[in-house]
Structure formats: structure tokens, C-alpha cells
Specification:
Layout: H1 3-15, E1 20-25, E2 28-33, H2 42-49, H3 72-80, E3 85-89, E4 94-97, E5 113-114, E6 119-125, E7 128-133, E8 138-143, E9 150-151, E10 156-161
Antiparallel strand pairs: 1-2, 3-10, 4-6, 4-9, 5-8, 6-7, 8-10
Length: about 160
């Protein structure tokens, strides 16, 4: 694999919806990652360890072909309602805490308003406490996890009506 091929692959990866790519060809190895924290997700490791779990094939010639099609009705529905639910997803793998300490109140309950960059929970990963903040303003419409659940990278945690 020469430098030109690597550049072409990087451009296709960047234009695709993939978040991780691990390529091994002979004695060459290439790993690309779009994850916020640069950590390989567990689901990626599982697929790497057990390729039989892979559900689809990646077409490097045209990575956009694997994108889901959006119907005209779906597109119209987006314009009819100004309110929609956005999802706060886990940026890391770890144990989620919905309150700062066992004796404290939970950060947020359904119906609470949330501001952009406001803490909604903590995820403990490798003995570090990571404050998870909301990326947008809105109202908590659903809490999708329980206190002290183990969460995966990209797992939906909260639904927020924006």
C-alpha cells in the first residue's frame, strides 16, 4: 500500500458514516478513528475478534451507498414538527452514575430542563470520573439507563426534547 492509496482510503473514510476502520494487509496495518475520545469501541473489538458477527459489507469504492435512504415523507415530517428528540450518547465505556454521590439527588429526571454543557451524569472509566454534559438545550423526555448500569460507547443515555 503506497501513500497515494492511503490518502484515497482516508478521504473515503472521512466521507463515510464509519467511525472506526482497522485494516491489515500483509505486514502493513492501518487504524483510523473518528471517535471523540480516540478509543476503540467494544462493539468494534467484538466484530474484529469475531468477523462472523459482521452484518454488512463495506464497499470502499463507494462508502456512501451504505447510507440509509431518507424518504420524502420522512423529510416532510422533519419540517412539520419544530420539536424533536435528540439523544445524548455515551462517549466512553464505563459505569454510569445518575447522581454525584449515593446520598445526593439525581442530576436530572424526566421533565427537567437542561442547558447546553450542563452535567447530566457521570461515567466512571478506568477509575476516572467523567462528567457527561448535554450538547444542546432542551427538556429531558426519557432516561434510557439505570443508575450504576454499565454503558457502551455510543449507547443512548437520555432523550432530550429540543
Amino acid at each position: 500500500m503506497d501513500l497515494k492509496e492511503v490518502k484515497e482510503l482516508l478521504e473515503k473514510f472521512d466521507a463515510s458514516s464509519l467511525t472506526e476502520l482497522d485494516l491489515k494487509m500483509g505486514n502493513a496495518s492501518l487504524y483510523m478513528n473518528k471517535n471523540k475520545f480516540g478509543v476503540r469501541s467494544d462493539s468494534f473489538r467484538e466484530k474484529q475478534d469475531n468477523p462472523a458477527q459482521e452484518s454488512g459489507e463495506i464497499n470502499l469504492a463507494d462508502p456512501l451507498k451504505s447510507e440509509p435512504e431518507i424518504s420524502a415523507q420522512d423529510n416532510e415530517d422533519k419540517w412539520i414538527s419544530q420539536e424533536k428528540d435528540e439523544t445524548i450518547k455515551s462517549p466512553i465505556v464505563g459505569v454510569i452514575y445518575l447522581k454525584a454521590a449515593p446520598e445526593k439527588e439525581v442530576y436530572k429526571v424526566v421533565g427537567d430542563k437542561v442547558k447546553k454543557n450542563e452535567i447530566v451524569c457521570i461515567i466512571e472509566a478506568m477509575k476516572l470520573m467523567n462528567e457527561i454534559t448535554s450538547p444542546f438545550d432542551g427538556v429531558i423526555s426519557e432516561i434510557l439507563v439505570e443508575n450504576e448500569d454499565v454503558v457502551e460507547f455510543g449507547q443512548p443515555l437520555f432523550k432530550v426534547r429540543v
